[in-house]
Input
Amino acid sequence: MVDAVENALQPHDKEMRQHPRKRMYRARAHSNPLNDSNFDVPAHPDDYDWSRHYPAFFSRDAPEGTGSQQQEPEDPSETGTPSAQQQQAAVRFADVGCGFGGLLVKLAPLYPDTLMLGMELRDKVSEYVRERILALRDQHSPQYSNIACLRTNAQKHLVNYFRKGQLTKLFFLFPDPHFKAGTHRRRIISRAQLADYAYLLAPGGMLYTITDVPELGKWMREKSDAHPLFQRMSDEELATDPAACLLDKATEEGQKVARNSGLTMRSVYRRLESPVSLRSQPRQ
Ligand SMILES: C[S@@+](CC[C@H](N)C(=O)[O-])C[C@H]1O[C@@H](n2cnc3c(N)ncnc32)[C@H](O)[C@@H]1O
Output
């Protein structure tokens, strides 16, 4: 009798979480990133509890290979610095405007020990991604424990979530084009935003952009080329970068463009150690 009950509780008999259906998560095509929506954001990155997004990475008895941390967490309020746990299990990749999460799902098995976060403005879409990830974790455990999705306005709140130099990859895949001149302020790549991205990326970190809108591609390249802390990478350099090779087809938007044989423009930048102008100046 006990055996029968125990058997009934075995994971193989547990009902698997099903993949969500997109049509159940219909969302408005666009949201205005400059709206004053009230997002509950941490005042400081160290105030945020990441364990609810990546439980496998923060649990002491998690299996090997999930990047779980074994150290006793320190209290940052006592030390004034991030704990060893926070340092090591920090998010390193951020996919800004992740849409339905295709990039995260492709990257997860390629970098199994790296925490990655999708940031999405639309509530239904971010809910879909969260359900998608939970279903993948259920069906392919312990894979996909390194990806998560957060609903937030990344244009306003990135610095609430990440510390200086914390990120090693920042993705902007098929961002909303905001065609009219009056709405260019809403574009996610701009001079002001690039200053934030340079702050959050570690030296040597990478910023990835791709679009099928020629005007936006030109705009993103102009703004990024002009930034003294970013250097555009050549196609030869990118040929060996697995993430760069995923940009055009990993996401739902990219697949749509590919189905329609649309052209894309990819621009990828390395975050430099020091600004270009300073590097070229002779030492005093
Ligand atoms: C055209 S879709 C591309 C989605 C995805 N990157 C892809 O390639 O399939 C742009 C996405 O960015 C999201 N987005 C726009 N502004 C945002 C912001 N400020 N913060 C977070 N997400 C944003 C939109 O809701 C939308 O899902």
Observations:
- The pocket of S-adenosylmethionine is lined by residues 31, 33, 97-99, 102, 119-122, 125, 153-155, 173-176, 188, 251-254 (CB under 6 Å).
- The longest helix spans residues 123-140.
- Residues 83-284 form a domain with the Rossmann fold fold (CATH 3.40.50.150).
